[in-house]
Write a structure and sequence with these properties.
This protein has 459 residues and is an alpha/beta fold. It contains 19 helices and ten strands. It has a six-stranded parallel β-sheet, sandwiched between helices.
Length: 459
């Protein structure tokens, strides 16, 4: 009969292969059978974290540490989970204790740096990242994280250099072709395969570079998420589109990710190609939604579309998304008409909305017949403003050159940079930033004031 250690190791192997639920069941069974096994409780905490049951994960780590106070691995993992709960001071204390118990604990230094990167203490993020680098100078994830911070600060040259390490990270999806990767070679008369690298918003953001390369004489093939096929058909600079669920059969000379094109071109805040709109929607669809909205919505002086919840699976979603109730101050704007552009997770909050202005919902089958974002894009043409969290809709609205207010957490995604109200990527976007971590109310008040100035009350 296998020992407890062998059972836990086998479960960990299953866990590492991605079957977290099955591993969780084993950890739980061992912890129930051997409640004084600190290692089992630690494993259980890791599984609960990966299952996004963060509060339960913390309790599991606390039990492990109660049984075994000198347990740096449990402390490090608890610090990580507390970070996801936004319990910054407790998280930092857990990392410090892990380092005290195990000097030179690389993961604790690196995770501590990430904690402070998320919470806006960039000085401390650099401090702990560089201490981690002294321990493991070639760690790809560490270099990637440093790259993100440099890009956020506008240090693009150093940022791109460090961010290249992302291709060496374990989760990176490699694109292996016999053709060479484009690193700046002359593209006149050549064909280049451009592929999406991250989420839908990133593809919408960086697809602008197809035109830049087209203008350099290239023929471009875009290999991207199939959901965006209809939306990107009208983008300038794209000669051919192939969904990334298909094999690329067309011949090409070079390949490059859309994001890496920005790196190769040496993009900085002052030379970003920002000609908008670079996504165009068929006029018949725009006209259709003009008629639909006129027929179904009452007249209003100001139509404002709202999005509050991004991808819940994003690791920093708790710092990017906010509850719908935070937008209640918008109800004070005279003549405002609120329209929900939120679909999927978060849309259920409309049912418990307590603002003194109604929120109008759009049809549930939106974007299902024309293609992802197509109906939404047409609707955006008939709104006076879009108010959104940091989601793919912010990029869509920017690419369509629609007037948009983006509500940002204290430490935003790197592309929004720091300490500015505009975006060099999207001229029609205005950025509203948290004055402190978690303070969405102040951001909503700034948005309300801007809407009131744009729509003064009649005398």
């Amino acid at each position: 009969m296998p020992s407890t250690e062998e059972i836990l190791q086998k479960a960990w192997d299953i866990h590492q292969k991605g079957n977290t639920s099955k591993a969780f069941e084993v950890y739980r069974d061992v912890a129930n059978r051997e409640p004084y096994n600190a290692v089992a409780w630690c494993y259980l905490g890791i599984a609960l974290h990966d299952l996004k049951q963060y509060a339960n994960a913390v309790m599991a780590y606390e039990q492990a540490l109660k049984l075994q106070p000198h347990f740096p691995i449990a402390l490090n993992n608890m610090g990580n989970t507390l970070r996801y709960l936004g319990r910054i001071e407790e998280s930092d204390a857990a990392f410090q204790k892990a380092i005290d118990q195990q000097p030179g604990y690389f993961n604790a230094y690196r995770n501590r740096g990430t904690l402070h990167a998320w919470s806006g203490r960039i000085d401390l993020a650099f401090k702990y990242y560089y201490q981690a680098m002294e321990l493991q100078p070639d760690d790809a994830e560490l270099h990637r994280n440093l790259g993100v911070i440099h890009l956020l600060q506008g240090n693009f040259e150093e940022g791109w250099r460090e961010y290249r390490y992302r291709w060496q990270c374990r989760e990176a999806i490699q694109h292996r072709y016999p053709q060479p990767k484009w690193t700046g070679q002359d593209l006149k008369g050549k064909t280049i395969l451009l592929y999406s690298e991250q989420g839908l918003g990133d593809t919408i953001h960086f697809v602008r570079f197809a035109k830049v390369l087209k203008d350099r004489g290239a023929r471009t093939i875009l290999n991207m998420q199939p959901q965006l096929l209809a939306l990107l058909q009208g983008c300038p600079g794209i000669d051919s589109i192939v969904p990334n669920t298909w094999t690329v059969s067309e011949p090409f000379d070079y390949h490059c990710s859309l994001l890496d094109v920005a790196d190769v071109l040496g993009i900085r805040a002052d030379n970003i190609p920002a000609d908008v709109p670079y996504i165009r929607i068929p006029e018949n669809l725009v006209s259709y939604w003009r008629a639909q909205l006129t027929r179904t919505l009452p007249p209003a002086r100001m139509r404002v579309g709202m999005v509050w919840q991004g991808n819940a699976d994003h690791q920093a979603d708790m710092f990017r998304s906010f509850p719908l109730k935070e937008l209640e101050p918008l109800c004070d704007v005279a003549g405002i008409q609120l329209i929900s552009l939120q679909f999927g997770k978060g849309s259920e909050q409309v049912q418990v909305w307590k603002g003194n202005q109604p929120i109008y919902a759009l049809p549930d089958n939106l974007d299902q017949s024309s293609g992802a974002f197509m109906d939404t894009s047409a609707i955006l043409h008939h709104l006076d403003w879009i108010v959104t969290s940091d989601t793919s809709l912010a990029h869509l609205a920017g690419a369509l050159a629609r007037p948009t207010m983006v509500m940002l957490g204290y430490t935003p995604d790197w592309r929004w940079l720091l300490d500015r109200e505009d975006s060099p990527w999207y001229p029609t976007l205005r950025l509203f930033r948290q004055p402190r971590v978690g303070d969405w109310h102040s951001v909503a008040l700034q948005v309300r004031q801007t809407l009131e100035q744009a729509n003064p009350t009649p005398a």
